């Protein structure tokens, strides 16, 4: 589904990712853990085409992000190509980034209508079904400012899910929430994960959540994937000293 090859990313002289290779299979749930500044968000932003790599390639579903084939040759991607590839990826951020002047229903329908050119009635039917799935069917006429942080984040998740991406990126989606609101958001993500088909990349500091949900856990440090394995391998039998010392902070 996703293939990173030799991905290096520098900001000026600061190298934040160093020759990353990473494959994510269709439906696979991958959790990224690691100290802050280790490059996790940059990895996700590259996939979302919010950043361009310094070197290396990323493929989604067999198509390169920054290049496309034309007459058997790879040429720089045009907007149409980027648009199509981006459509396969959904992202939810730490800060919900809802449209403040639109009610909840419209926040969820907007991209279906504008980007996917779906008729409004169909978009609304899908949005309502998705809002029900995240437990917000009573809030469709409210505005973002009238919701709690946990509710806002559930709207952001519904808004990404209705676009039916092949892979969803969740970047520290609970870090900005009051502790008592974290559980409701993690439960929604767990339910979506349990349905299976969609691949997920989850950047998180919630170790129990990573353990519950992930098929594979990657530990990043200093711009490299230092260790990876099943949740059992990573949390019960960490091999590297760096991972062992990182995990002691959560015990
Ligand atoms: P993490 O998600 O693991 O905390 P990030 O990917 O956010 O790590 O950041 C990795 C490093 O890249 C950090 O040192 C950060 O300051 C730097 N960085 C990220 N984005 C930019 C940017 N747009 N310009 C300059 N430096 C950046």
Automatic annotation (TrEMBL):
Lipid bilayer topology: Peripheral membrane protein
Sorted keywords for this record are: Amino-acid transport, ATP-binding, Cell membrane, Membrane, Nucleotide-binding, Transport
Q: Does the keyword ATP-binding apply?
A: yes
Q: Which residue ranges does the record assign to the ABC transporter domain?
A: 2-247
User: What are the GO cellular component annotations?
Assistant: plasma membrane
Q: Does the keyword Amino-acid biosynthesis apply?
A: no
Q: What subcellular locations does the record give?
A: Cell membrane
What SUPFAM superfamilies does the entry give?
A: P-loop containing nucleoside triphosphate hydrolases (SSF52540)
- Classify the main location: membrane
UniProt cross-references to NCBIfam families, sorted A to Z: ectoine_ehuA
Family according to the record: Belongs to the ABC transporter superfamily.
What is this protein's name? Ectoine/hydroxyectoine ABC transporter ATP-binding protein EhuA
